[in-house]
Amino acid sequence: MSGKAINLEQGKVYMRTRKEGKKQVTAAAKAGISERSGRRIEKGELQPGSKQRRNWRTRIDPFAKVWDSEVVPLLTKNHQLTPITLFEKLQKDHPGEYQDSKLRTFQRRVSEWKALSGPDKEVMFRQEQVVGRMGLSDFTQLKEVMISILGHPFVHLLYHFRLAFSGWCAVKVVHGGESYTALAEGLQDALWRLGGVPLEHRSDSLSAAYRNLSKDAAEDTTSRYRQLCLHYGMEATRNNRGKGHENGAIESPHGHLKRRIKQALLLRGSNDFPSEEAYVEFLEGIVGDINSRKQDKIEQERQHLQPLPLQRTADYTETVVPVSTTSTIQVKRILYTVPSRLIGERLRVHIYDSRLECYLGITRTVTLPRIFASDHNHRGRQVDYRHVISSLVKKPQAFRYSQLRDDLLPDETYKTVWSWLDKELEARKACKTMVGILSLAHRADCERQLGEHLREMMTSSTLPSLLELERKFAPKEQIYVPEIRVSQPPASDYDSLLSSCLPGVQ
């Protein structure tokens, strides 16, 4: 039919009919085309199904008068300018001439110019992974799900280690941010669990760890990272700052890991865990499933790994702090209480990601849970009433206006008890009773049970008596009375004794 393009099916029908020995006129009629078109198909002058591309415009170019004079110079000067930025500039410079409906056309023009005349783009060179060569570390955050411990949000990161060849991976919960301590602790845990060491360790620039450090502190961290890798015989490498694709062998698995975690939480039916240990066990189950699917490649790679050193190296930072007269130390803007017997001493503190280990000389005296300030403008406290209760019992009235009063109360139950006592009792007696309750909780190691009992007493509006609480919860001192058995010898034994001492006596 005149004016209608011949499609591919018509061409096939025509040629099939011709191969059957039919004449051109018959084949053309069967295909629904003209006899002349049939001859052109046979000569190769016409390709059915192909549409000739036009090389002329069907509409007037709306940007003809500004493209070469205004747009191209801007793109040439700075190729990072986006089409929307340039289009809005045209709208400001030429009011009323360029409506929003022309934006898509302009975007195509800019995209075409960048492809034909713009700068070269960065090429991604896919790497062949060599067995036993590279292990990678990075930190990631669960953004789409909120994990909670006993109903309270659990803010954390995940340290992720992975072997590039086999895909063996390990995950560790990180309480603070990206730091050398978290990297060193997580990396060593992963290597000892793996049972070997790759030739090279790749990490990102850890900009979050260095952002607020001085130049000397950042260089010290870099040096310690290199020493860590040297201890394990690994070459320490980093990807370029801002070039996440250079760490692609772990950046992409981040997404796979987080999707698995999300799906496992959906199957579990809850994002709330009874403890951090239960959450860690949940993650280890997921990581175990991932590794079990790659067991063959993992065993192959293990044969090419370097042996582990004889022992781990330091995976902590160290500082020396004095113990003040308030029985506290300051570590990284956080106030910690320590046992009052250490007042006046200087402690060497090993700072791990999740704990502080305090040493007096070479003796470890106390281990404290590490906490982190909410942001860089605030300070925090980690107060344990057990450290100072012996002194507080001697002067209970110091409790009322102590700067640490609310922190000395171990949980919300005890805070509610204090509010109740302070309201119902005379001020001095309220302080004495509250301090006595804390002392009993420490001595009898019954903090939870005592708290539950006090909650029941509040419900029944029964004021507590320290004497009654002592009788109920204080450990009873048991006096050990040894059992002595005395056996009476028979009289005949005495006769034998006398006969041996006095000869001739019968």
Question: Could you walk me through the main structural features you see in this protein, from its secondary elements to its overall organization?
Answer:
This protein is of the alpha/beta class and 506 residues long. Helix content is 44%, strand content 14%. The protein has five domains: 36 residues; 54 residues, no CATH class; 169 residues, Ribonuclease H-like superfamily/Ribonuclease H (Nucleotidyltransferase, domain 5, 2-Layer Sandwich); 66 residues, no CATH class; 67 residues. A hairpin with a 2-residue loop joins strand 2 and strand 3. Helix 1 packs antiparallel against helix 2, helix 2 packs across helix 3 and helix 15 packs antiparallel against helix 16. The longest helix is centred in the middle third of the chain and has 21 residues.
